[in-house]
Amino acid sequence: MSHSSAGRLKSAALDFSDVLTIAREHWQDQKAEEFQKQRIAPILRSVETACLAMDEMAQIVAQMQRECGPIREE
Protein backbone atom coordinates (compact mmCIF):
# COMPACT_ATOMS: atom_id res chain seq x y z
CA MET A 1 0.00 0.00 0.00
CA SER A 2 3.05 2.28 0.06
CA HIS A 3 2.57 4.08 -3.29
CA SER A 4 -1.10 3.41 -3.87
CA SER A 5 -3.86 5.95 -3.60
CA ALA A 6 -5.13 4.13 -0.53
CA GLY A 7 -1.66 4.31 0.99
CA ARG A 8 -1.39 8.03 0.36
CA LEU A 9 -4.85 8.60 1.82
CA LYS A 10 -4.02 6.53 4.88
CA SER A 11 -0.73 8.40 5.33
CA ALA A 12 -2.52 11.76 5.10
CA ALA A 13 -5.08 10.60 7.66
CA LEU A 14 -2.30 9.55 10.03
CA ASP A 15 -0.61 12.92 9.59
CA PHE A 16 -3.93 14.62 10.27
CA SER A 17 -4.44 12.49 13.38
CA ASP A 18 -0.94 13.40 14.62
CA VAL A 19 -1.68 17.10 14.23
CA LEU A 20 -4.97 16.68 16.09
CA THR A 21 -3.18 14.90 18.92
CA ILE A 22 -0.84 17.86 19.29
CA ALA A 23 -3.78 20.28 19.18
CA ARG A 24 -5.64 18.28 21.83
CA GLU A 25 -2.69 18.74 24.20
CA HIS A 26 -3.73 22.40 24.40
CA TRP A 27 -7.45 22.13 23.65
CA GLN A 28 -9.03 19.99 26.34
CA ASP A 29 -12.48 21.41 26.97
CA GLN A 30 -15.95 20.05 26.24
CA LYS A 31 -16.01 21.63 22.78
CA ALA A 32 -12.83 19.77 21.87
CA GLU A 33 -14.46 16.49 22.89
CA GLU A 34 -17.61 17.29 20.91
CA PHE A 35 -15.54 18.27 17.86
CA GLN A 36 -13.61 15.00 18.08
CA LYS A 37 -16.77 12.88 18.34
CA GLN A 38 -18.96 14.74 15.86
CA ARG A 39 -16.46 15.78 13.18
CA ILE A 40 -13.10 14.06 13.41
CA ALA A 41 -14.05 10.48 14.31
CA PRO A 42 -16.52 10.15 11.40
CA ILE A 43 -13.91 11.48 8.96
CA LEU A 44 -11.29 9.00 10.15
CA ARG A 45 -13.79 6.12 9.98
CA SER A 46 -14.71 7.13 6.44
CA VAL A 47 -11.07 7.27 5.43
CA GLU A 48 -10.48 3.79 6.84
CA THR A 49 -13.53 2.45 5.00
CA ALA A 50 -12.41 4.11 1.77
CA CYS A 51 -8.89 2.66 2.10
CA LEU A 52 -10.26 -0.83 2.62
CA ALA A 53 -12.52 -0.48 -0.42
CA MET A 54 -9.67 0.89 -2.54
CA ASP A 55 -7.42 -2.00 -1.52
CA GLU A 56 -10.16 -4.49 -2.36
CA MET A 57 -10.75 -2.89 -5.75
CA ALA A 58 -7.01 -2.99 -6.48
CA GLN A 59 -6.98 -6.70 -5.72
CA ILE A 60 -9.94 -7.28 -8.03
CA VAL A 61 -8.30 -5.31 -10.85
CA ALA A 62 -5.05 -7.24 -10.36
CA GLN A 63 -6.96 -10.52 -10.53
CA MET A 64 -8.76 -9.39 -13.69
CA GLN A 65 -5.44 -8.48 -15.29
CA ARG A 66 -3.97 -11.86 -14.39
CA GLU A 67 -6.98 -13.70 -15.81
CA CYS A 68 -7.70 -11.50 -18.85
CA GLY A 69 -4.38 -9.93 -19.67
CA PRO A 70 -3.34 -6.29 -19.53
CA ILE A 71 -5.66 -3.51 -20.62
CA ARG A 72 -5.02 -2.52 -24.22
CA GLU A 73 -5.28 1.03 -25.46
CA GLU A 74 -7.24 1.24 -28.73
Give an account of the 3D structure:
It is built from two helices and no strands. The chain has 74 residues and is mainly α. α1 runs antiparallel to α2. The longest helix is centred in the middle third of the chain and has 39 residues. It is elongated.
Shape: elongated
Distance between the termini: 30 Å
The strand count comes to 0
- Write the element-wise H/E pattern from the N-terminal end onward: HH
Average pLDDT works out at 89
Proportion in β-strands? under 5%
Q: How much helical structure, as a percent, in the residues?
A: over 70%
* Tally of individual helices: 2
How big is the Rg? Answer: 18 Å
Structural class: mainly alpha
Which stretches of 5+ consecutive residues score pLDDT under 50? none
Major sheet = none
Q: What is the compact description of this entry?
A:
The protein is mainly alpha-helical and 74 residues long. Helices cover 82% and strands 0% of the residues. The protein is built from two helices and no strands.
Secondary-structure blueprint:
Blueprint: H1 5-26, H2 30-68
Helix pairs in contact: 1-2
Task: List the main descriptive attributes of the protein structure presented here.
single chain; 2 helices
